[in-house]
Amino acid sequence: MNALLAATATREVQWNVPDGLVVFMYASMAAALAIFAYGIWRRARIWRLGRPYSVRGRPWLRTRRMLAGLAQVTVLRRVFPGVMHALLYYGFLVLFAATVMVFLYDDLGIDGVFEGDFYLWFESLTVDIFGILFLVGAGIGFYRRYVVRPAYLARNEPWDALLLGSLFAIALTGFGLEGIRIEATADPWASWSPGGNVVAHAVSPLSDGVLEDVFPWLWGLHVLMWHVLLAALPFTKALHWFTTPANLFFARPVAPRSVPTPTDFEAEEVRLGIKNASDMTWKQLFDLDSCTECGRCTSVCPAYASGSALDPKRVIIDLRDAIRARGLAAEPLAGDVVSYEALWACTTCRACEEACPVGIEHVPTILGLRQNLAMEQVRMPGGVSDLVANLEAREHPFRGATAGRTDWAEGLDVPALGSVAEAGGAEVVYWIGCAAAFDERAQKIARAVVRVLRHAGVRFAVVSSQERCNGDVARRTGNEFHYDLLARENVEMLNGAGVTTLLTHCPHCLEQLRYEYERFGGRYEVRHHSALVSALIEEGRVRLRPGERERVTYHDPCYLGRYNREFDAPRRVLDVLGVERVEMPRHGAESFCCGAGGGHAFFDETEGPDKVNQIRTREAAATGATTVVTGCPFCLTMLASGARAVGTPERTLRTMDFVELVAEALDE
Amino acid sequence: MHTIVLLKQILDWELPAAKFRVDPATNRPAEGLAPTLLGPFEQNALELALKLRDAGAVTKLTALLAGPADGVDALRKALAVRADEAVHVPCEPAIVDPAQTAALLAAALGRLDPAPELVLAGRQAGDWDHGQVGYLVAERLGWPAVGLVWEAEPRDGRLVVRRSGAGADEELAVRPPAVLTVTSHPTLQLRMGSVMDRMAANKKPIVELTPDELGLGADSLAGERRIELARVSVPEVHRECELVEGENATDVAARLLARLEELKLLGSSS
Question: Is domain A396-537 classified as CATH 1.10.10?
Answer without folding.
Answer: no
